[in-house]
Amino acid sequence: MPSTASQHLLGLLRITLPVFQAPMAGVSSPAMAAAVSDAGGLGSIGIGASNVDAARAMIDEVRQRTTAPLHVNLFVHRPAQPDATVEAAWIDRLRPAFEELGLAPPPALREIYTSFDADDAMLAMLVAEKPPIVSFHFGLPAPERIRALRAAGITLLASATSLAEARQAAEAGVDAIIAQGYEAGGHRGMFDPDTPDDQLGTIALTHILSRRIDLPIIAAGGIMDGAGIRAVLDLGAAAAQLGTAFIATEESLADEGYKSALFSDAAYHTVMTRAISGRPARSLANRFTRIGANIGPGDIPSYPIAYDLGKALHAGAKASNEFGYGAQWAGQGAPLARRMGAAELVQTLANEMSA
Question: What is the pLDDT of residues 335-353, one digit of tens each?
């Protein structure tokens, strides 16, 4: 029997299963989001790495595929802090990897993503398009932006990695909190990545937030099957968010090198690294995470400037059929990944939850 918190959240979002597909930029597709939502969960797209035209096109494609609810995720990182000396040294540090591939690194690096807090065009598009659910990652936008989204009738979510962040989100007026445990794949949602990280796991964080925050809590991190969903629901979560579980689905945008790595020994050795993007993120162990081992955060350019070099290295390597420099984000539950369609996975999770 769903808890009161779960029933409230499912009613608010107009879904039937407490299953969120994580909005993984570069992996989630409109086809995946539509399939998940049609199956009763909450399908999601990540638009933090997209410009406003690409973001609108993704929203439109989901709507062409389904009338079910859609969750749209935004990056709300603080603006990058350029440092020409650090950036030049980082290019030189990665130069041997480029040269091994017969390539030259770019001569300079760019800030490749705009934070939602500085993107007026994205705000205007969302207010006009009115996706039913919007979430924030890396922090919270200014109060006037939250008011504009709420005035458009949009339900708001925010990720948090600690009680302090969750309290800030609650005070800002969001409707539910995504509790991101340290096990989770991809970027840590820390508001300030340069402050100490208590590294709370999903179980502890979910339990704490469900007792201390008077909002629905969505548990995220390391959850791969129905048993994991049941466990976090028993601890007070209103729903569970799964990302790594959807990487190998038919609708995923992950390339075959990424999917193959997910089913290799690398899945048992995920690594939290800044080297790929400039912010802490959990990846499958690969050639890039080995480069990043034992490098201090002060030697890595600011996010997302560092990501410009990371993406250039991956693109060059991939052209030579080398996938070991990719941003192969995955959580600690990676060894439990399964290959199937997104809708089939949601149905499988529902069956496992009720078994």
Answer: 999 999 999 999 999 999 9
